[in-house]
Amino acid sequence: MEIINFLNLVFLAPFVEMVSYPIFFSEVIISGLLTGVMYSLVALGFVLIFKASGVFNFAQGAMVLFAALTLVGLMEHGFPIWAALISTIIVLIVLAFVVERFMLRYLINQEDIILFMATIGLTFLIQGFGETIWGSNVKPLDLGIPSESFELGGLLLNEFDLFAAGSGAVLVAVLAIFFHYTRIGRALRAVADDHQAAMAVGIPLKNIWIIVWSVAGFVGLVAGIMWGAKSGVQFSLSLIALKALPVLILGGFTSVPGAIVGGLIIGVGEKIAEIYWGPLVGGAIENWFAYVLALAFLLFRPQGLFGERIIERV
Amino acid sequence: MFYRETGQFKSSYKADQAIFPITQDRWFILFIFIIAFLVIPLTASEYLLQAVMIPLLIFSLAAIGLNLLVGYAGQLSLGTGGFMAVGAYMTYKLTTAFPEVNIIVIFILAGLISASVGFLFGIPSLRIKGFYLAVATLASQFFLVWMFNKVSWFYNHNSSGTITAPPRELFGVTVTGPTATAETRYIVALAIVCVFALIAKNLVRGRLGRSWMAVRDMDIAAEIIGIRPFQTKLIAFSISSFYCGVAGALMVFLWLGSAETEAFSINESFYVLFMIIIGGLGSILGSFLGAAFIVCVPILLTNAPQLFGLSMPIDLQKHIEIMLFGFLIVFFLIVEPHGLARLWQIAKEKLRLWPFPY
């Protein structure tokens, strides 16, 4: 009898609940989608760098934190917001330059895992550096984005979340235009496709790396602003890198659309699982559920949803 | 001059296959053993044992375990912390359920449970490779830690949620719990680590180790010459988790005394991974060197400002410490991507030709 009860709780009751309260269910889905956009933003930075340089950049989370810290720190020192934004972007470009000049350049042709480790070292370095300069207190980031909730057709929506989703969409569109219609964007795609062929037609690889790390820094800044405005700028921002990893493997390391769709799937899946199945196992399953979901997808598509097909030869 | 194999003739396969074929190496190892087993316990202070030596040994064991998996079998894993947690919690459960059983047996049983958990989480490795696998192993890290946090059965339903090492005796001497002296715990850890390091060294020299290396270098080619990738990878995951599990058990029972799941967080996994990369992938010696590096550097960094008479706010110092630690990692990877074990090898080769290099 207990077994039947348990099966009912796991396999039937949540679905009944979903169907009987459709409005609540759609609210869950929408809030999942909106969180998913935020995950996508972080994952996007990973994908850009991985495509262009084959580096699995674990430091993306630290870059999000560093960008947000710099922005808030400058604003606290009396910079108007536009000046703070521009200065932060310059700082991020300098960071990209330093990373290329003093780290990547010496690690060319090393094994992937060495590069990966180096970026974990870089994570500590950037984190420590940012907090040494700006301190580790939680800093509120107020950009004047409204955060009131309102009702639309019976659904409760939050203005801030919509704003975040909107700016995420704009960012993705800008990136897509940048990649497809500018000279630099085409060079980036060429490098992503084939390093050697790109070098052979005269694309300067080192500059490309600086550019792509700067772009990733910029994407990190946008993600940092969104997350920072939501929960304050603090150390835990760098941990959202861990949230972006399942998004990455789900979407595929090499695919920009993958990062976005992956983010949405993870966001929605996580919310649904937390709300409908979480209470069964004592809650707080958000930490690992995304990974298990991604793992389940991977078993069927080892290269992720949109990743390039892995071809292996002896 | 003094480090030559000249004149050391081998007349049996056994001598040829020795772990240390050169006499000088054997003397050196004997010297290390004397220092480790006699000099350190007799002379070292409580602080040195507790803060440096015991963690060094325990992390060496974890690093050996991870090195078997990452360095030899080529399966990148970030789940070390989770497997260490399995070892620690299972030891706690078993020893509180069966107080009369010898604690060493308990450690091994907990290691075996950890191995079976590793086996389960290793199953995806047949289809998933490289970084995809690394991220997938994070699932085990987060899931296991969450489980030990949520299911109160694992910590005997106590309200604090911590596991505490109860006093257990070995040959009439208390080795765990609050009354055990640092010296005893050090010796026990040292003995366990020595035995397991020897086993690991022989594992990687044998058939299994060779098949791991074949899978690491190219799994499709390995499959074609008749190595079963699935079995080989799963054995690697199991044995690696066994080592990590025992290391986790030692961590709580011989070092920390009590622990929460916090002690087995994702950072722990990264630290162990750092150890094997700084020490050298695919090297048992490297696991020890890497563990020594990662354990000692933060201690040096923490104490360095006092040595120079600098005083600064504690949180600022912490941030600078993190920054320097990151810098050192990057620096070491740039200078010697093959790790400290490679430096040691180069030093030995130089020494052989010294003082007349050609």
Rg result of chain B: 21 Å
**CATH domain fold name of chain B:** ABC transporter involved in vitamin B12 uptake, BtuC
CATH topology of chain A: ABC transporter involved in vitamin B12 uptake, BtuC
Report the radius of gyration of chain A as a whole number of Å.
21 Å
- Strands in their spatial order, largest beta sheet of chain A: 1-2
What would the principal axes of the Cα set say about the shape of chain B?
globular
Biggest contact: A-B, 51 and 47 residues
Helix percentage range of chain B: over 70%
Unreliable stretches of chain A (pLDDT < 50, length at least 5) are: none
| H/E element sequence of chain A | HHHHHEEHHHHHHH
Give the domain tally of chain B. Answer: 1
Draw up the topology in text.
The complex is a heterodimer of chains A (314) and B (358).
Chain A lengths: L1 H19 L1 H32 L6 H17 L4 H22 L9 H23 L14 E4 L2 E4 H23 L1 H11 L1 H6 L4 H27 L8 H12 L4 H22 L8 H15 L14
Antiparallel strand pairs in A: 1-2
Helix pairs in contact in A: 2-6, 2-7, 2-9, 2-10, 2-11, 3-4, 3-5, 3-9, 4-9, 6-7, 6-9, 10-11, 10-12, 11-12
Chain B lengths: L12 H4 L6 H21 L2 H27 L7 H18 L5 H20 L7 H21 L12 E2 L3 E3 L2 E4 L5 H24 L1 H11 L1 H6 L4 H28 L1 E2 L6 H14 L4 H24 L6 H22 L3 H15 L5
Antiparallel strand pairs in B: 1-4, 2-3
